[in-house]
Design goal:
The protein is of the alpha/beta class and about 575 residues long. It is built from 14 helices and 27 strands. It has a seven-stranded mixed beta sheet.
Length: about 575
């Protein structure tokens, strides 16, 4: 879309701002900030999931909307869990989602030097001290919600002694856990986070970026505001559980005397009903071999959604539908499915694929004859053009499109009934052939040469239209159908905290038959298979000329969009 068109669209958009936009616009109007600068700060300790997508698109979207900047920052201040593997996957996922940080890629660990200086500054101001208490003692001294905390004996140390001890911490003179640096705030504060929080700890550990350069590491609540301030972030958007940490965030940037301190704003996390996102659970599913890695198409990591066949646009739409608020709420997975259907239905070709094939033989069709039928790729979108599909005497149809003894209202193939073969002819079923076990191996019919699709034939109507593929030219392929990995009837968790798994979450069909054009399908290409759903070529398991298809979503849904969306 051209920029001018976009601008026009924006003018006609209803004036409806979410609460973060309202804060930003007020800040800009009052001159508190003259620009908007946001960031996405993942810890590289796992794969990103649909919830992170919300945070990424929110932060990136705000920077775009207010012509500001967006930083990609790895919050890698904790050496224990972080891995370079995740640094790669996270960047891939964010780029794929469509958020662009240009050249603004940062690592919090590159600020360790400045963070150390910040701690020294606090010590010099009398605002931080070295403590000898153990983690348990610190917890005990902290008091309770109804009881004030007790003074740490370390808090009586002089500035000089604290400077010396802190330097010794840095030099590696102390064992892990034997000394920490605490901020001196208020041991009686009703907010437990303000009761002299630990801001630095000793940890003799190798860091993925800084190696063994440091043996002291800053705590999240101290490091994060400094990272934001160093990068000139204006609005530091995080999730609700950090609301109680905001006074500490503000304390840190105030005491460090940043001239234009960033502001923390919290919003509610995105949760999906009956869906697992917790790293702990996913990790276990991966380790137990229940799923095929973090990108198994049944999961909702960004990599998994991508592998399943979701598009960035569908995820963007979903996140928009969910909105931004301060109240926790739970989104429905079918809403995500709605978004991918809407995205693909006009964009992608509608192909014929038979998932459970049985042979259909047209007895009166000339032996050895092949017609090349020209078929529209998408009847609702002419721009997608046409393709040819070979048609001949022997075809495959879906096994359940034939019934020897049909129930009422069954309009597909049964002896004596006439149906339309999609894009081809009317055929009348004459019967079937069974093997010695009674299984149907062939269905037979005759065709009416006058009824060719596109010939202008209007003689009579039929109630059923079924899809097919040519037997000889069709491509044999593997197709995977998915259900929720969680047994929704029973809920996500068992009493013992383990997951309630659905034993039928993956169904692999090894002998599907596709129309020949699909042989050339490329990894991650998406198609509609008529009557079956939307499918995507699996990028991991497909081979040249032998694609494997994942079903993204079926065509039908009982999901009804919330009112406001219908009006558009
Ligand atoms: P952990 O539990 O390991 O801390 P995390 O999901 O919080 O995991 P981070 O890497 O700290 O992982 O998250 C990066 C950013 O994504 C943070 O700003 C966080 O607030 C945001 N975020 C995480 N989960 C969600 C969610 N479900 N919805 C919206 N934003 C989220
Ligand atoms: Mg986190």
């Amino acid at each position: 879309m051209a920029e001018t068109e976009k601008a026009q669209l924006n003018e006609t958009e209803p004036v409806c701002r979410n609460f973060i936009e309202q804060i930003i616009e007020k800040d800009l109007a009052e001159g508190i900030y003259d620009t908007v600068h946001t960031r996405f700060p993942p810890e590289p300790n796992g794969y990103l999931h649909i919830g992170h997508a919300k945070s990424i698109l929110l932060n990136y979207g705000l920077a775009q909307k207010y012509h500001g900047k967006f930083n990609m920052r790895f919050d890698d201040t904790n050496p224990t869990k972080e891995k370079s593997e995740f640094v790669e996957s996270i960047q891939n996922d964010i780029r794929w989602l469509g958020a662009d940080w240009e050249d603004r890629l940062f690592f919090a660990s590159n600020y360790f030097g400045e963070m150390y200086e910040c701690a020294v500054k606090l010590i010099k101001k009398g605002k931080a001290y070295v403590s000898d208490l153990s983690a348990d003692e610190i917890r005990e001294y902290r008091g309770t919600l109804t009881e004030a905390g007790r003074e740490d004996p370390g808090s009586r140390r002089s500035v000089e002694e604290n400077l010396m001890l802190f330097e010794n911490m840095k030099k590696g003179l102390y064992a892990d856990g034997s000394k920490v640096l605490r901020a001196r705030i208020d041991m009686a504060s009703p907010n437990m986070n303000m009761r002299d929080p630990v801001i630095y700890r000793v940890a003799h550990m190798t860091h993925h970026n800084t190696g063994d350069a440091w043996c002291i590491y800053p705590m999240y609540d101290f490091a994060h505001p400094i990272e934001d301030a160093i990068e000139g972030i204006t609005h530091s958007i995080c999730t609700l559980e950090f609301e109680d940490h905001r006074p500490l965030y503000d304390w840190v940037v105030r005491e460090l005397e940043y001239p234009h301190p960033p502001k923390q704003i919290e919003f509610a996390k995105l949760y999906l009903k009956n869906v697992v996102t917790g790293k702990r659970y996913i990790k276990k599913l991966v380790e137990d071999g229940i799923v095929d890695g973090w990108d198994d198409p049944r999961l909702v990591s960004i990599a998994a959604l991508r592998r399943r066949g979701f598009t960035p646009e569908s995820i963007q739409r979903f996140v928009e539908l969910c909105g931004v608020s301060k109240a926790n709420s739970i989104a429905e997975y079918p809403a995500l499915e709605y978004c991918i259907r809407e995205d693909l239905k006009m964009k992608r070709p509608r192909m014929m694929a038979v998932l459970d094939p049985v042979k259909l033989i047209i007895d009166n069709y000339p032996e050895g004859k092949t017609e090349l039928l020209e078929v529209a790729n998408n009847l609702e979108n002419e721009a997608l053009g046409t393709r040819t599909v070979p048609f001949g005497k022997e075809l495959y149809i879906e096994r359940d499109d034939f019934m020897e003894e049909p129930p009422r209202k069954y309009f597909r193939m049964f002896p004596g009934n006439e149906v339309r073969l999609m894009h081809a002819y009317f055929v009348t079923c004459t019967g079937c052939v069974k093997d010695e076990n009674g299984a149907i191996v062939e269905v037979h019919c005759t065709y009416d040469p006058e009824t060719k699709c596109g010939s202008g034939f209007t003689g009579r109507k039929v109630k059923g239209t079924i899809h097919w593929v040519p037997a000889r030219e069709s491509v044999k392929a593997q197709v995977r159908l998915y259900e929720n990995i969680i047994d929704e009837e029973k809920g996500v968790y068992n009493e013992d905290g383990s997951l309630n798994l659905n034993p039928d979450s993956l169904k692999v069909l090894y002998d599907c038959r596709l129309e020949p054009a699909l042989q050339e399908a490329k990894p991650e290409e998406r198609f509609q298979f008529v009557r079956q759903g939307f499918f995507c070529v699996d990028y991991k398991d497909s081979r040249e000329g032998a694609p494997v298809f994942n079903r993204i979503v079926s065509l039908k849904s009982s999901y009804v969009l919330p009112k406001q969306e219908e009006k558009k």
